[in-house]
Design a protein that fits this description.
Layout lengths: L3 E5 L3 H13 L3 E5 L2 H11 L3 E5 L7 H11 L5 E6 L3 H10 L3 E5 L3 H31 L10 H14 L5 E4 L6 H10 L8 E5 L5 H9 E2 L11 E2 L1 H4 L4 E5 L6 H13 L1 E3 L6 E3 L3 E6 L3 H7 L4 H7 L2 E4 L10 H16 L5 E2 L1 H9 L5 H15 L4 E2 L10 H6 L9 H19 L4 H8 L3 H10 L4
Helix pairs in contact: 2-3, 6-7, 13-15, 17-18
Bound molecules: adenosine-5'-triphosphate and magnesium ion.
Length: 452
Amino acid sequence: MKTRILLVEDLPDALELMVDLFSNKGYEVDTATNGVEAIRAIKNKEPDIIVSDIQMPVMDGMELLKNVTKDYPYIPVIMVTAYATIDSAVEAMKIGAKDYITKPLRLDEILAKVERISQLNSLIKENEFLLNKLQQKYDFTNIIGKTDKIKQLFTLVQDVASTNTTVLIRGESGTGKELIANAIHYNSARMKRPFVKVNCGVLAESLLESELFGHVRGAFTGAIKDKVGRFELAHGGTLFLDEIGDISLNMQLKLLRVLQEGEFERVGGTETIKVDVRILAATNKNLEEAMEKGTFRNDLYYRLNVIPIEVPPLRDRSDDIQYLVYHFIEKFNKIYGKNIRDIDPKAMSILKNYDYPGNIRELENLIERIVVLNKSGIIELKDLPSILPAEENVAGSEINIKKGLVRAVEDFEKRLILQALEENSYNKVQTAKVLQINRSTFMSKLKKYDIN
Ligand SMILES: Nc1ncnc2c1ncn2[C@@H]1O[C@H](COP(=O)(O)OP(=O)(O)OP(=O)(O)O)[C@@H](O)[C@H]1O
Ligand SMILES: [Mg+2]
């Protein structure tokens, strides 16, 4: 998109010079010869940036600037001032001008300043746009659930979001702990500050330490320059310590100190660094058991467990499954450009009765696979072989004996093949091997049952 510039100048020659300059550089140019005209132009044209002279009749540049900073604080203004009145430039900066240019006009100087400021401004706009997107993503309307269990959870999340308290989020794998952590941050007063995540479970102890606290150059072999840790990066914002149940006792002690004192040193460093960071932690481990075994420190547990949030497993709120299914169908329809419109009630009932050891992540992956592979636009039983209960797979109600033995056996065979395919990631060679039939027999069966 072209940048729209408003040039405000009462001297025709100077104005023409600038109009030529910016039109040639591809800007959309609007003009005004005094402050009153300028305000009208701002209303009608919504410029991205304004360059204004100070001395003008009717309403001068200072008055205009005051109006813009009050009513349109997001539009940057550059003031043009006569060299003799440099004081007014200083004054203009105080009022809120982004920069100033002194007369006599030097075109390269004007251009450089305008380009720098409009780039900066579009970065700011883009940032706000991205932040907005993130807030929308973690808005509660995108966390699906209508059961009482999940509503209570939302209320709790909303209540703790506005505080600065440490929160320990617990729940099985795939229940949505990370989503909740994001929702807390993006609904808190810190939402415009960083949300920094550390997965404590995947890093070796020494790496985790330098990841969290940073290190100074030469602290250990390979530390070729200073590194800022996640605690510092999260300053003013939120630090999410994921998989907190997996850290060593030694690291637990180091963490405890930061949580208690709000200060630490970089690895190998002597300077004490103070930070203001809100801590959220998550785990799928049983920390009480770990404390009994002596693998998790009591004092750290109490520091973290100020507000515990328990995210229930999906099987305990199976009434939410249907909403999640629709939510994910819509999501993957969009991503893959598909148009799945409906789901067969029998298929929905299977989806609702499955117990999802991998919780929402498992359901999400399942729906993604179904959406990708489905051709008919309707999700049916045959789309979910991997979660069909055993009896359905063997001689389930779907197999109609009245069709006669041959057809019933064929139905059964087709279903077995589909299931085997799915279990083997649709790798034909592998599936044929598992079914212990040769490749050409297998291919002819695929053709016979119209599976591709
Ligand atoms: N209530 C919900 N509504 C919509 N999507 C959800 C919901 N809960 C979780 N999800 C989705 O499920 C997936 C898993 O969630 P998340 O990563 O937060 O789980 P987790 O508890 O952190 O898992 P793990 O313990 O394995 O790290 C994500 O893609 C998330 O967006
Ligand atoms: Mg997680």
